[in-house]
Amino acid sequence: MRTIKAAAAAALLSLPFLPLPSAAEAATTPPMGWSSRSLGCSVSEQSVRQAADALAPLAPLGYRYVIIDDCWLAAQRAGGALAPDAARFPGGIAALAGYVHGKGLKLGLSLSAGTKACSGGGPGSYKSEAADAAQVRAWGVDYVKYDWCSIPTADFPGKNVQQIAQALYPPMRQALGPDVVFAMNNEDGSTVPWLWGKDAGATTWRTNVYNRPIADSYATMVDLWETNQLRAEYAGRGSWADPDLIQAGRGGMTETEYRTQFTLWAMGAAPLILQAAPAQAPASVVANPKVIAVDQDPLGAHGTLVESDGWYHVLAKPLAGGDRAVALFNESDRAAVVSTRLGGRHRVEDLWSGAVTSTTDELAAQVPAHAALLYRVSESREQAPPVVTFEADPPRFLGDDRPSTLEPGVTGELVTRVTNTGATARLRDVEVTAQAPEGWRVEARTPARTSRLDGGESFTVTWAVTAPAPGTYEVTFRYGDRTATAVVLVAKAPGSGRTYLSDLAWTRATNYFGPVEKDTSNGERAAGDGRPLTIEGVTYAKGLGTHAPADIEFYAGGRCTAVEFQAGIDDEVGAAGSAGFEVWADGGRVAYSGLLTGAMPARKVTAPIEGARFVRLVATNGGDNATSDHADFADATITCK
Q1: Which of 261, 353, 415, 458 has the greatest number of beta carbons closer than 10 A?
Q2: Smallest Cα–Cα separation from 100: which of 48, 155, 36?
Q3: What keywords is this UniProt entry annotated with (predicted)?
């Protein structure tokens, strides 16, 4: 993976250096920079200087704020004034601010609206707002992240959480003055900051509805994006909706998923604050000036959904000068065509690939799973090639998110389709080629070349595909400089008779804590850390150990008849824990255990699965918290013909 440090010399030296704006000027676009949150209380003066060194090459793109997120304060005030932790910041904050400013950057600090800081044990700013604001301004601090921790609610009798927040945040904003960015970090949804943050003078306000940082995972990122979209009407120039930090470079998502987060945040005019060390953030994601320009557009509009059916989303955002940004987002686990009508002839620039095309109306593309494509759309009659929709292995129905499945040595079919979507010119000499993994056979069953393709016409090729071994693979198809990829699952159905599911390979599995375990309970951390499966004193040699909610899928190939297991909460959590145990055959639930708790014996579950291609074992949360939900599928078997 490329890093900022490696890419800076090649990609960024040619960019003009922009003069450092005041905080008030910077607030006219969403703040950009880096936060020390991942460092926690290991943050230090040295690590902040290193981050500033690595961030400086990105300053021409707008990354300006180096933000110390907690653990910088001494445990006690010094003569009533805030003081930095002497071990972590021996040189003091003023000297650090000078160093950061010397790099063409700005310094940010976190403070708390309550009696204590959120982490590190330092004092909060409750009843000391004016003095603390004067202190950080004197140090040269340019950005304050004002947290919501250790709030003395007893001091506000008769007031709800929103009213308390509305009493505590404005005094700090007023004391800091307009030249300091004010990031209102009261992410507790009960304070509903989107309703009043702008009136309180907040530069940014968090849109979470739960009080915890963003996890470096695709599912969490999408959840926060969806929540953020619900606040779009309240955001605008100078007061930005903040769905939390950019995760690129931390390692929990793919580069495609990181690019999706960056695209969605740009469409939402969100702050672009890196959480990974700047040197680890991939330049291919965070250093694209045309995507950043969408986020930083002077109009300041928050993009809105213009089409959505739950899996596939189209967002649009008006830009200064009359252009608009359009994002096509495929939330599902399988590539699919996402399209929208633009109304009239347009120039279309793909901001990630740089390709420029034109269309008489429709914009469409096959969007990979978990990906978001971003376009700048302009009204123009520019002579550019037409928009082309190039598909590989299109879904069989709306919402189909399962990869196409082959069995080893059994020939199946894949389809590719080229469509002249833009219809601004005729396509000539359209030829599609295939590239498969080693050992595969891929042959065109229908012609793979056509001499012409008029506007609106499609050219479909059927391919015979044979795979040698189980696994998940990619088959890549090419048309000109375009590629389309089919993700193919190669799976083998169980043999005839009765087989323990723990002796089979699952096709996919999710689990609340740690991995699903075979023949042991769930240990919550690394694979293999479980204990013997035990339910009410009965020990089972075979089975699957999970932590609800959990979901385990097996390929049955339509040749199996029944799944059986003993369902129960493992004895290792005592009487605590509760879960429901389900079996799903393709799209329908075929068995349910009812609610089981840690104080109940195992319950036998038998599920008919005749004809099902895929079978899922699901453990659902019992309705309380998930802390002790160690759900065992003991003696789990599948019977096949």
Answers
A1: 261
A2: 48
A3: Disulfide bond, Glycosidase, Hydrolase, Signal
